[in-house]
Amino acid sequence: MKLLAIILGVALPGIALGQAASSPPHSSLHPRAAAAAARVRPALERDLEQSGLKLGAPVFIRAFKEERQVELFLLNHQNGKFQLFRIYPIAAASGQLGPKLLEGDGQVPEGFYSVGPKAMKPDSRYHLAFNLGYPNAYDHAQGRTGDLIMVHGNQVSIGCLAMTDAKIEEIYTICNAAHVGGQGFFRAHVFPFRMTAGRMKQATGAKWEDFWKNLQEGYDWFETRRVPPDVTVQGGRYHFGEGK
Question: Which of 38, 113, 195, 196 is most buried (most C-beta within 10 Å)?
């Protein structure tokens, strides 16, 4: 059960999420990833320094389907909080609002995922990519199927979040540097929309209202603390605690 929880990317009670992801990322030496890093690293290091951040610091990602945006945060070691570095536009994403249920349904998942070094795919046919970790423990508990849901380049998507090649080179380089810097896994939270009180009110009576309210708990946790929560699955729901 412990191994299953680690692989799925959501901790079960008493299991530290990502605790097995301690080996160095194999992707750091891949020629395509190295070439991408050579292109984007100088500008990234300059822009990060101007923001009080450093390449190699732990990262956190949030994605919003309705807004078609990916937010990339890095840990600010001065205050211990995750600071927004950039918001990237999603070039392509299939499906509608609501979670992924079945393999082949074209839906982008919604939920709380984690990405370890082995999920990085520098040899992807979509330029560069990383596997979100769907299905996680919650998805499995709900009987959801499918796999290989990626954030990748090439601007083409069937259930994935597709970026332009230029943007995925930045995202991949920052995330890979975090792994090399010692982050055993980074969290990737995928939401249907920005889960503000006003937007949630608009969702009253929607098919996925109860599920979205559960997601909102994790959204609000980060909004309040600026540190992503430790996510567990209990009784068919996500639960949130102090991140590690």
Answer: 113
Q: Based on the structure, what is the number of domains in the chain? A: 1
Residue 160 is among the residues annotated as catalytic for this protein: yes
**Taking phi first (over 0 means left), then psi (-120 to 50 degrees means alpha), and beta for anything else, what does residue 18 get?**
left
Cβ 122 vs Cβ 25: under 8 Å? no
Out of 26, 30, 140, 152, pick the active-site residue: 152
Per annotation, catalytic residue among 127, 160, 175, 189: 160
Residue 26 is a catalytic residue? no
The range of the structural domain enclosing residue 22 comes to: 2-241
Please give the pLDDT value at position 157: 80
Give the residue from 16, 240, 216, 59 showing the smallest Cα distance to 151. Answer: 59
Q: 30: exposed, middle or buried (C-beta count within 10 Å: 0-12, 13-18, 19+)?
A: middle
Q: What is the pLDDT of residue 243?
A: 58
C-alpha to C-alpha distance for 227 and 75, rounded to whole angstroms: 9
pLDDT beneath 70, residues of the chain: 1-29, 243-244
Query: What does the alpha-carbon distance between residue 243 and residue 51 come to, in Å, rounded to a whole number?
Result: 24
Amino acid at 35: A
Give CA–CA dist 144/127, Å, rounded.
28
- Give residue 220's pLDDT: 98
CATH number reported for the structural domain that contains residue 46 in this entry = 2.40.440.10
Sheet with strand 59-64: strands edge to edge? 81-89, 69-76, 59-64, 186-191, 111-115
